[in-house]
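User: Can you write out an input/output pair for a complex, sequences first and structure second?

Assistant: Here is one pair. Inputs:
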Amino acid sequence: MSEELQTAAAWLAEGRKVALGTVVKTWGSAPRPAGSQIAVRDDGAFTGSVSGGCIEGAIIEEALAAMKDGRTRNLEFGVSDEQAWAVGLACGGRIAIFVEPVQ
Amino acid sequence: MKPEILAALNAAPNRPLVRAIDRTTGEERLVDPSTDQSPLGLASAAAARADTSSETDIEGRTWFLEVHNPPLQLVLIGAVHIAQSLAPMAMLAGYGVTVIDPRAPFATQARFPDCKVICGWPDEALTPGALGTRSALVALAHDPKIDDPGLAAALNSQSFYVGALGSRKSHAARLARLSEAGFGDESLARIHGPVGLAIGARSPGEIAVSILAQMTQTLRL
């Protein structure tokens, strides 16, 4: 139903590997609510967002690793005020992300 | 995520689905909150109603309930002036908008850009299943022949919001007609009429604001 999941299905249909990152918990003023998703392809291409830009790079790394070893991952990130400011978000906060391969 | 669960979510049924994930074990389950009466199903139904994904403890296990709701839908009965203001405002708030009116000069695509426009009678246009828990219906035609069949379809569905334009007097007459048609007090109480929050709205645009505000209030509070 979501654009991210539709793209993920299209990538799978092309024979690519795909992993998902999902915001499962937030503390403080996190930029994206729980349920927000990112879909990552095996070449690092991605769609969607889990933080508005601050931690997508790290999520993509973990997603690529998850595609290789087939395991899920529970990650937690603090978004510092400085980082938040750097991406144009005047907020801090902490978020938990669940990374899983689609397989 | 299993590919079959991904496929099921993308099959986009016009009803909510919830994916429950146990993050410690990686186990996932696809829950149909409209039929599943287990504790997990009931918690999923509450999450889908609230349109909020979150972690919940159920019978000693922690599940992340990932809500996959169909998009919000607004059905306007009567392709009238107020509908022309309400339709674009509702689209900005995330609704897909359908406008229904049997009068051809009213029900034109030119008057309602980006909306689904149906020139026809509401009881024929609103087939069973057309309205669900993510649907709102507002009757604006000011003509019982057009409004009443639309309201009847909404009352026979799980629409989260039903509204009808008109004064207290015309609303009382409407309730009497629908009661005659067999709707009980509990059903009739679902109709917001006179429609909208009382903000002293006068112009079509202001009335549209009051209606959209009341829809939002009903959806979120």
